[in-house]
Specification:
Blueprint: H1 2-11, H2 19-24, H3 26-32, H4 38-42, H5 55-74, E1 85-86, E2 97-100, E3 105-107, E4 115-121, H6 128-143, E5 150-156, H7 164-172, E6 179-182, H8 185-194, E7 199-203, E8 210-214, E9 218-221, E10 227-231, H9 237-248
Parallel strand pairs: 4-5, 5-6
Antiparallel strand pairs: 1-10, 2-3, 2-6, 4-9, 7-8, 9-10
Length: 251
């Protein structure tokens, strides 16, 4: 009803007289005739049930009407403007149960209260993985004091070669807070599938060597543990930091 009243009030301005003018004139109408009701003065449809036909009652209703209109506009606030792809509500990437490079079992719930960035790769990756981790190093630098509220997780897609020790040496070379996660082949495959991560092994030029093609995006969870963003490879650290600040602020 508040919307119908407000729309009608705005429509009246094109004729040089609005419903606000009519509303302001209500007390005078009551002085002239105490039998009028507020909805008779304003329109053919009642805004609120009226049972007391007195000017004092009408004036008491004005703050209520104004409050309704204010609440209407408050509910129309714009969603946050992220630089990364907003995937809020995605029905995947809900969980991972792996072991970190310190030998501690890890789940997403362990990091509740922090924004979590999850990236899938492998330590012998020649380009995408190191540049992504370098970028996240810069992101934490841009966040300043908020850096402690962000956790970066590097999930290996190469458990055969990426031991816990190798992961520890690799990820902490970029930042001491980064954690490497690993599991057996079946577990990694299940987690990658749940996150819709593509990866495929390709034979190298020497016997036993191989490389891995894989998805390059990073996944971001908000402090409540909800999957919110997909950060494309090559996004600037400043843009990623800005997105993380929004999530840390509860957006």
């Amino acid at each position: 009803m508040a919307m119908r009243f407000f729309s009608s009030a705005l429509a009246g301005t094109a004729r040089g007289r609005s419903r606000w003018d009519d509303l302001a004139a209500v007390p005078q109408r009551y002085e002239a005739d105490g039998r009028h009701s507020i909805h008779q003065a304003l329109s053919s449809e009642p805004l609120l049930p009226i049972t007391d036909h007195h000017p004092q009652t009408t004036m008491k209703l004005l703050p209520t009407l104004i409050l309704c209109i204010s609440l209407l506009f408050a509910g129309c606030s714009q969603p946050p403007s992220f630089k990364s792809t907003d995937i809020s509500g995605a029905d995947w990437g809900k969980e991972l149960a792996l072991t970190d490079h310190n030998g501690q079992p890890r789940r997403l719930a362990d990091f509740k209260g922090k924004a979590v960035v999850v990236f899938f790769g492998y330590t012998q990756c020649p380009d995408v993985c190191p540049t992504t981790l370098l970028s996240m190093q810069a992101v934490l630098g841009a966040l300043g004091n908020d850096a402690g509220r962000v956790q970066v997780l590097f999930v290996t897609l190469d458990p055969a070669r990426d031991s816990a020790q190798l992961l520890a040496e690799y990820v902490t070379a970029f930042h001491p807070s980064f954690l490497g996660l690993h599991g057996d082949e079946a577990t990694i495959a299940a987690v990658a599938k749940d996150f819709k991560v593509f990866y495929a092994r390709h034979a190298g030029t020497t016997p036993g060597s191989y490389s891995i093609d894989h998805s390059t995006g990073s996944y971001v969870f908000d402090p409540q543990g909800r999957l919110r963003l997909l950060v494309r490879h090559g996004e600037t650290p400043d843009n990623v930091a800005a997105d993380l600040k929004l999530l840390l602020a509860g957006k």
